Amino acid sequence: MLQSETPVGRAFLGWSNLRDQINSPAFSGVSEAGFNLIVSRLDADATELLAIPCQTPRDFILKVIAVTDWGGVALPDETRAPELWAEARALVNWAYRII
To answer: Which terminus of the chain has a lower count of CB atoms within 10 Å, N or C?
Structure first.
């Protein structure tokens, strides 16, 4: 299944494309205010991605990548991302059932 074949995958693709733009050489001339505006949009996209239900284990990983910016920031705890941790518990329970 390709990344874009699920709602999470499509949202991740949008987040990833925006992140790539921010990190491109062409973006280096953007003002600080412009940069902050785009980074705020990137953060909002990651937060919105959390609200989309996972359809596959890969969706969960895509959410973790986006919310941590590829591990650059800490994973939020359950008080800040309860839906992410609910899905983590569901995946663990699912994995135990198939073993």
So the answer is: C
